[in-house]
Amino acid sequence: MRKKYIRLKPQSSHPAAKLKQEIQAVLRGIVIKRDGGCILRKVRHCLGTVLQADHLITRGNSTTYSDPRLVVCVCRDCHYWKSWNKEQYDSIIRSLLPKDRLDLWERCLRDSWRPVKMDWKKELVGLKQILKNL
Quick one: 117 exposed, middle or buried, by C-beta within 10 A (0-12, 13-18, 19+)? Predict the structure, then answer.
């Protein structure tokens, strides 16, 4: 039986989209260095390969899109597992994060409906500085 491949949507060439792609790359670097690999490596069996930045609040929320405190490092296997076990995943993550990040997560979830216009260039500069200081 032949596999059916789905054509991916082309990436936008809009300047904001390009900045967001770069922000994602820098965020990934930050969380890999900060978390030292998959944050779940000590609480569940994972391979720890292909590390990813997982946003605790959807990337559709501009306010939290580039906040590294609301992003954790997970491996591809754990990220896939999350898609089928979101409540358990969130519970485990909550047990691993410090109180200040938990409080921020809860506060941002309550306010996530508020639209905010972001200066993506400024956000990117700030993230690059954070990465440089790690």
Answer: exposed
